[in-house]
Write a sequence for this structure.
């Protein structure tokens, strides 16, 4: 069967249609992203997490592993990090689950974005995007994925030219680091967003808590 993209393939492979209330994952993602029906407009990252956790729950159900929300949340955190959690991978393996396969199956925000815009032909106007409390983080996530894709292409070429052996086997980590113009303080973008300031001494005069939207 032909699938629109990774999102369509995963939905079919892991039988995720049931995850949405009316059996329509695309309709559900679209409504939440755009803030239609009874849904509050939602950013790509929470939607990506929702999808990936449904995938995890489906696999856990098939392997008789607990699908308690706390368990799924904690395992998802551990699995979706930069470095796989070795003890969790071992635990999953004992339950007959390939944790590395899950890691590569998890959607990225850019894949979900392409599914919504290309496969479902939806778009958000800039005005709508400003009402989306997560668009800033989504945009940075997206930029990091673009960087990683470009690096991967370069590595492929370097490997082909034998300039860096096995270059494509490497993991790539992209960080956006923000620095204080007055002192040596540096902080990751995500951390700055979380704590609400970049430098407490020189750049924290107007702290306003991040909005959670509606
Ligand atoms: Zn698609
Ligand atoms: Zn400073």
């Amino acid at each position: 069967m032909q699938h629109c993209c990774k999102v369509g393939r995963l939905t079919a492979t892991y039988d995720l249609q049931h995850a949405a209330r009316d059996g329509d994952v695309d309709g559900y993602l679209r409504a939440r992203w755009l803030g239609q029906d009874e849904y509050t407009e939602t950013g790509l990252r929470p939607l990506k997490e929702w999808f990936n956790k449904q995938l995890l729950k489906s696999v856990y159900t098939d392997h008789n592993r607990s699908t308690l929300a706390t368990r799924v949340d904690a395992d998802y955190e551990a699995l979706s990090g930069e470095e796989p959690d070795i003890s969790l991978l071992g635990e999953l393996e004992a339950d007959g689950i390939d944790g590395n396969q899950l890691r590569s199956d998890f959607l990225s925000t850019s894949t979900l974005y392409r599914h919504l815009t290309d496969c479902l032909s939806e778009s958000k106007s800039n005005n709508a995007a400003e009402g989306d409390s997560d668009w800033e983080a989504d945009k940075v996530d997206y930029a990091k994925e673009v960087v990683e894709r470009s690096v991967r292409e370069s590595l492929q070429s370097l490997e082909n030219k034998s300039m860096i052996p096995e270059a494509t086997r490497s993991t790539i980590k992209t960080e956006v680091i923000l620095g204080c113009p007055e002192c040596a303080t540096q902080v990751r973008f995500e951390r700055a967003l979380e704590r609400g300031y970049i430098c407490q001494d020189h750049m924290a005069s107007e702290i306003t808590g991040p909005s959670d939207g509606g």
